[in-house]
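Hi there,

I know you've been waiting on this one. I reran it after we fixed the sequence typo, so this is the corrected version. Both the input and the resulting structure follow.
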Amino acid sequence: MIKSLQLNHLKWGIPVLMLLFLIVLPRTMQFQTAPGELSIGILLDLLVTIPIIYYLLIRKTNIPKFTVVYPFLWGIGIAGFLIPVEHQTLLSNIKVIAIPLFEIGIVSLLLYKVWSLNKFFSKTEGHDFYDKLLIACQEVFPNRIGKILATEIAVIYYLFAPGKKQEKSALEFTYYKKSGILTILAVFLFLVAIEKFVVHLVVSKWSVNVAWVLTFLGVYTMLQVLAIIRSMSKRSITINQKNSTLNLRYGFGSQTSIPLHTILKVEKTRSTSNEKTNVCLSVFDLIDSNNVTIHLSEENTLQKIYGIEKKYTSISLFVDELDLFVEEVERLNNLEEF
């Protein structure tokens, strides 16, 4: 085992040593004598040699082959620091071609992944577009980056997705029609729009660039809120009898899946519980209301946008058809016990 570890370190040490050599090279006298030619050599090593070595190292492992793109992109970034500005003509040309191709490739790969998952989950219940998108992004990128990317794509998708009404099943529940949250958010968006207009005028007298940055951030926040609002009608709370799970969703803003056998009690409430372990399903928990709290026998995880996670043993939420929801959860939970 020790020999195996030593061999593994030796293999990965090759690209590391090569990178260290390339970092030191621009500071040597030899580089000063032929900066143009050696700049091209450094660029080729960063963008070709090291990615090839990386591929040879991972080709017989479980690491996805498309991750060879990562050292290529890192090479572009590192080259910008190592190569003198006057010798970056080739690097600039590569950026113009490579970066758009990379973006197109990533979008194509994600669409293919979502399409593949759609076929895979076509015969199962409980998986919608955002579930498939989240899985696809996490397969392509490291865990947290994948979740962040999924959030950004979801914002665009739900902003422009058709608003067609879908038939609601008996074990599907809405959470936004009777809570008043839509009215509150509409007023919030209106006030924010006015506030951003005033702030832009005031700040622009001091700095036009800062004013536009603040305006952009404000507008993007408004678009995120609007996207979550539009996703509410497409992502309902559901009870999956086949998997014996309760799927709680608040648009694409937050979600959690609860095994029915872990539910201790479903309690009708009027305000958020004061328990330390309690969380709210709503993304807008400071202004939203709730009418039910679900207590669990074991800890679970609430997943929010941008990969944010919260642990809980009780969770509060609002359900429009509260009595029917409590009745169905308790009925199916009792069936689980037998």
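Quick highlight: DSSP finds ten helices and eight strands in the chain.

Best,
R. S.
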